[in-house]
Amino acid sequence: MSKLLHWLAVLGSGYLALLILTWLLQGCMIHFPSRALEATPADAGLGYEELTLTTADGERLHAWFLPAHEARGVLLFFHGNAGNISHRFSPLPGALCPGP
Asked: 0.90 exceeded by the pTM?
């Protein structure tokens, strides 16, 4: 029984140390994306329009509109919080629409 208590104390102490370390380093875990664009649709020969969308609370969002011939709808893609819009775009031929 004492060995079990010993291991529970060791594991509990390690977990507590991990929690404290995470709390102390939380400022280093915040992501600040770069504003520099690494690629644009023009790099792949695609036509596009640069847009700035303003939200109800006054935030400004940078966007690209890529028109399609005979489009049946619009796809709104949110790239998430890591990186910027150019980090989700590959200017390599065929990278947007891989196929045969």
From this structure: no
